[in-house]
Amino acid sequence: MDDRKPSKPQAEQLLNLLDAQLADSRKRREELAAKRGTFRIVAILTILLGAALALGVLMHLLKDMRATNTRREVTHEAH
Fold this sequence. Notes:
It is a single chain. It is rod-shaped and about 110 Å long. It contains one helix and no strands. The protein is an all-alpha fold.
């Protein structure tokens, strides 16, 4: 009659199962840490590229403004 009852797992089986779960958890954590590091590097590079692009645009605008002001001063002096 006891053949129908599921047998309880042995302590050794439980330890093996726990070890496997811990190893899987460690592996996932390491993969996540690597992805997080990559994401941070990409984010920093994107921010730096955007800042460099904005600086280039602002420098170009300033150059144009100076050229426009110089032309106006020359025009006013001629009159």
